[in-house]
Design goal:
The structure holds 2 protein chains of 2 kinds. By secondary structure, chain A is mainly α. Chain A contains 25 helices and 10 strands. In chain A, the strands form 5 sheets. Chain A has a two-stranded antiparallel ribbon with strand order 1-4. A two-stranded antiparallel ribbon of chain A has the order 2-3. In chain A, a hairpin with a 2-residue loop joins β5 and β6. In chain A, α6 crosses α7, α16 packs antiparallel against α17 and α21 runs antiparallel to α24. Chain A is globular. The N terminus of chain A is likely disordered. Chain B is of the alpha/beta class. In chain B, strands 1, 4, 5, 6, 7, 8, 9, 10 and 11 form a 9-stranded mixed sheet that branches. In chain B, strands 2-3 form a two-stranded antiparallel ribbon. Chain B starts with a helix and ends in a 15-residue tail after the last helix. Chain B has 16 helices and 11 strands. Classes of the chains: A mainly alpha, B alpha/beta. Chains A and B meet through α11, α12, β7, α20 and α21 of A and α1, α4, α7, β6 and α10 of B.
């Protein structure tokens, strides 16, 4: 797998545009330093460097450093908004950028959302969740699946927290939420897949369902008996309320298993039997192993990761090569995520020159990715360092998307979304990001850019250090943005259109700084509004 | 939000009793009284539509997540209420909490097992509408391909008795409710109804409108979804004026974002931007002339459903200016997947539904189109009657509401299910086996809207599988 995947790196020197294109997949931004590093090291070795690079500051440590752990009568411990500041800080500023990018992709497969998280310390709940994704982004899918299952925030989001065994007296049955979604969304999906991700068909040509309701109802028993672990929590009495304030350990400790709340009924799901009375932790291991070993996981997971990083419509052969890497990293290990990222990013289909004749090549850059790529590439001054960037989910006033703010466990958009009445639909193709694209969002996004590109957001300001010296030279700034933000995807005609318009600013080398920033922001607005930039190819 | 709000709203679980107490303090019927007054004073005086004012609209209110129907329309008579309490355990309402919203249907209607229902205590305004004959509950409606019995459901003859794809799954059942197909469908039945109305409207693009996010419901074979925000159409400000640009830069921006391209993704972005820019001036120009007196914010707290229905009401108010004669709207509210903390969270959402739908009805009265606008609810699925501790799980059939001046309301439609987790009208844990199909529900609405009977199978391909295409609530 590895030698073949690495081959393109040794065939020819990597151009600036190729390096930028690669970086827009592996990370968010593509600074001149990034481009130089990829060209010097080659794709494969550069990835190895990223896999070994040190971790940034954790979300929880950052929240602490900003005083968000303070216990005061303002009761900030109930306020979720620092959760937004935390995730924006992670994605915009932490140095382990590739790990952040992979975690962001994982956060759209294993979804929890800050929206309904309540109670004590929602920002810390989200920080602990983000840490799980970062911890295992370069780890193993099986370990990740277990950490996801026992995470305090996931426990709240899909109700494993407090899930109790059946009770004949009250008619209570175990909660089915996690049992359903771990199968439908986090591992195997609805239908049996071939190794290349296409659906298997039965003798009548119908897709074959992976599970039925009875599997869900039975598997639900495995996830009973869990609750937040309060064993390290300190209870602080305070004057302004009549109940104590909890310390934050429960947000990051895996959920605790309580045998008396666990169902001892026998479980049968996907043809696997877990005998009556199997201890809870053993039952969990059997269940997670069964799901992890299902042949669907590789193609189901890899297709969606390819969609997040490279293209909306990977070929079955591409999916199969990535799934093969998931199934075996070359050393007999299943679920090795470093191998998966390598396979996705170094696949010949990914690295081949964009086929200009393919009308459905590429993917729509998601709004969060556009903002992160911009900020990380042009540079910024965080001002007071508080990263007071709020939930940007509104289409009319925000960008129609905000990290860790999906409206439901089904992510911001579905992997199989087909925009009606489009050439994309006629070609039988999919375009997930178009599910959050409409008359409102296209206008709202450009309006958001209009302010942010010039003035930043709160105290967060773009610096454009590399651009200020060339601000008077319209072709030079367009060329800079085209390479670093768009991997030279803007056509010569588009560049000329933008340059001609910018020339009307009449800027000279002697123009004052604020006029130079006006010029740079105007250029950036034109580039980042252009469909040739918005579609990543 | 102030710390006090956070304390009471977000953190400490407010007990149901405390909520009911608080509700009774502000006076539920008190809260609904202005509505009753509005209906009495404005009702029939304004009802006569002007000659030539030929207008009809359908408004789909989608409750995302699967509304808990057992706590929306609740068994109230002693016998059935006791059954409900026995199965629901801790997530049930006491009978005494339901007396104010107990329903007495017109004409002494008798239901299965002599069932009598009450609305959730948080639906006082909807009760006023029911009592006034403007609201009809449709009982146990859901996704079906053909009528099916419990035995056929348990059997394996899927050739004769096919099932809708992926029952109990959110995204698939949302899509089935909206498009009678599974995820990835590109044509919804609201859009197909809209296909018949395109030529009725001066602006064909204003036939099928979502004030929520993208929704396949309002995408037809020909009709496109037009999306509008609660604050109206959003202008791209920089193409008019960019404070740090020049007129040439604004012009270049306009040209760039509306350009055609050989790449389908790029080209589609250009198409959406063109639609957005072209309609913005027309829509906002017309909206600026509409002033509604109806209060959509009578209850403290945000209500995104009320915000969406308000822009729908304003668009209807601008119908003459826009040349709109037949329209299909889509609005939604998130958060109905109450696996836990059902008692508190569901009550909060019921209050929002109550405020939003009642205000919208009052607005149609204000505009004088209450007989021309029919609102109806939909949701992923119903939920289990059996409780899972403090919530309920994904079900199938559910109860829904149709609201409007043309509705023959104040009584029930469909067949009431037994209050049971063992009878044959459910498939386990009280998951209702639907006795009425979405297709029949839709056909009744489509017939009222003006879709000819001969075309009903185009809109609803499976309608021929069902006896009775008109349930009669309109």
């Amino acid at each position: 797998m590895k030698p073949q995947a690495n081959r393109p790196t040794t065939l020819a020197a990597i151009t600036d545009a190729e390096a930028a294109r690669f970086l827009h997949r592996a990370k968010f931004g593509a600074t001149p330093e990034d481009i130089a590093a990829v060209k010097a090291q080659g794709y494969g070795p550069w990835l190895d460097t990223q896999f070994k690079s040190p971790r940034g500051m954790s979300g929880a440590a950052w929240l602490d450093s900003q005083g968000h752990n303070a216990v005061t009568k303002e009761a900030e411990y109930f306020n979720p908004t620092a959760g937004d500041f935390m995730i924006w800080n992670q994605l915009l500023a932490q140095p382990d950028e590739m790990r952040q990018r992979c975690a962001f992709s994982l956060s759209q497969f294993f979804v929890i959302s800050l929206n309904p998280i309540d109670g004590f310390w929602p920002p810390y709940i989200m920080a602990a969740w983000w840490n799980v994704l970062l911890d295992e982004a370069f780890g193993n899918f099986r370990a990740l699946l277990e950490k996801v299952t026992l995470n305090a925030g996931m426990g709240m989001y899909l109700n494993t927290k407090g899930n109790l065994k059946e009770d004949a007296k009250t008619g209570r049955e175990p909660d089915e939420n996690y049992a359903r979604e771990i199968m439908q969304l986090f591992t195997i999906g609805l239908y049996e897949l071939n190794p290349d991700g296409t659906e298997r068909r039965d003798a009548n040509g119908k897709p074959v369902e992976t599970y039925v309701q009875a599997d869900v109802t039975s598997l639900a028993h495995v996830f009973t008996g869990y609750d937040h672990d309060m064993s390290r929590v300190k209870f602080q009495r305070v004057a302004w309320q009549n109940y104590p304030v909890l310390s934050t350990e429960f947000t990051s400790d895996p959920m605790r298993f309580e045998p008396k709340n666990h169902s001892n009924r026998p479980v049968t799901f996907l043809g696997t039997n877990i005998p009556q009375g199997t201890p809870g932790p053993d039952a969990l291991k059997i269940a997670l192993d069964r799901l992890f070993m299902h042949p669907n996981v590789g193609p189901f997971f890899c297709r969606q990761m390819i969609q997040r990083l490279v293209t909306s419509n990977p070929s079955p052969a591409y999916i199969k090569r990535a799934a093969d890497a998931f199934n075996d990293n070359g050393a007999g290990v299943r679920g090795d995520l470093k191998t998966v990222w390598r396979a996705i990013l170094l696949d010949p289909e990914a690295l081949a020159a964009a086929n200009a004749k393919d009308p459905t090549a590429g993917k729509l850059r998601e709004p969060v990715q556009r903002i992160l790529g911009w900020a990380r590439t042009v540079g910024f001054d965080p001002g007071d360092g508080k990263y007071k960037i709020y939930n940007l989910s509104r289409e009319d006033q925000g960008i129609g998307q905000s990290p860790l703010r999906s409206a439901s466990v089904f992510n911001f958009f579905r992997p199989g979304y087909v925009p009606p009445h489009t050439a994309i639909a006629k070609a039988g193709k999919q375009a997930p990001e178009f599910q959050i694209t409409n008359e409102t969002s296209v206008a709202g996004y450009i309006n958001f850019l209009q302010t942010a590109l010039r003035h930043g957001n709160w105290q967060f300001k773009p610096t454009y250090l590399a651009l200020k010296p060339i601000a008077h030279d319209a072709p030079a700034i367009v060329q800079w943005f085209n390479l670093h933000l768009a991997a030279n995807q803007l056509s010569p005609a588009t560049c000329t259109l933008i340059e001609t318009a910018l020339a009307t600013k009449g800027l000279t080398e002697a123009s004052p700084d604020n006029e130079k920033l006006d010029m740079i922001a105007a250029a950036c607005l034109l580039v980042m509004s252009a469909p040739e930039y918005l579609v990543q190819k | 939000m102030t710390p006090k709000d956070l304390h009471s709203v977000i953190t400490t679980p407010v007990s149901r009793r405390a909520m009911l107490k608080r509700a009774s303090e502000i006076g539920f019927m008190g809260a609904a009284a202005p509505l009753a007054l509005n209906l009495a004073s404005m009702g029939d005086a304004a009802a006569a539509t002007a000659p030539g004012d030929d207008y009809k609209a359908l408004v789909c209110v989608f409750l995302y997540g699967g509304n808990d129907h057992p706590n929306t329309l609740i068994p109230f008579d002693k016998v059935n209420h006791a059954r409900y309490m026995g199965i629901r355990g801790g997530v049930s309402f006491q009978r005494k909490d339901l007396t104010a919203t107990a329903l007495v249907p017109a004409g002494k209607q008798v239901l299965t097992d002599d069932l009598q229902y009450a609305f959730a205590p948080y639906l006082p305004r909807l009760k006023v509408l029911f009592d006034g004959g403007k609201l009809a509950p449709l009982l146990n409606v859901g996704s079906l391909i053909t009528p099916i019995t419990r035995a056929q459901f348990d059997g394996s003859n899927r050739a004769l008795y096919p099932l809708p794809p992926k029952l109990f799954s959110h995204n698939d059942q949302q899509t089935y409710w909206q498009a009678l197909g599974s995820e990835g469908s590109t044509v919804g039945w609201g859009g197909r109804i809209g296909d018949f109305a395109l030529s009725s409207n001066d602006q064909a693009l204003l036939t099928c409108i979502s004030a929520s996010g993208n929704a396949v419901f309002v995408s037809g074979d020909k009709a496109l979804q037009y999306q509008i925000s609660p604050s109206g159409a959003i202008p791209v400000k920089a193409i008019q004026k960019l404070e740090y640009g020049t007129p040439a830069i604004s012009e270049a921006l306009h040209q760039l974002i509306t350009a055609q391209s050989g790449n389908a993704f790029e080209n589609e972005l250009g198409i959406i931007a063109r639609r957005s820019i072209e309609m913005e001036g027309i829509v906002n120009g017309a909206l600026s002339k509409v002033e509604l007196k109806t209060n959509f914010d009578s209850v403290p707290g945000e209500n995104s459903l009320a915000d969406q229905l308000k822009i729908v009401a304003r668009l209807i108010g601008a119908r003459k200016e826009l040349g709109s004669r037949r329209q299909v709207f889509f609005v939604s509210l998130d958060g109905f997947d109450h696996h836990s903390n059902l008692s508190q969270k569901h009550n909060e959402l019921m209050s929002k539904v109550d405020e939003a739908i009642a205000a919208f009805y009052v607005a149609t009265v204000e505009i004088g189109v209450q007989r021309d606008v029919t609102t109806f609810t939909a949701s992923d699925f119903g939920r289990t009657l059996v409780n899972n501790g403090d919530g309920s799980d994904h079900g199938w059939g559910s109860h829904h509401f149709i609201i409007g001046g043309a509705v023959h309301g104040g009584k029930y439609y469909g067949t009431a299910p037994h209050v049971s987790a063992t009878t044959d009208d459910q498939v386990g844990q009280g998951r209702l086996l639907p006795s009425t199909s979405i297709d029949q529900y839709a056909a009744t609405l489509a017939h009222w809207f003006g879709v000819p009977a001969s075309e009903m199978a185009t809109v609803l391909p499976n309608i021929g599988n069902f006896q009775g295409r008109n349930i009669g609530f309109l």
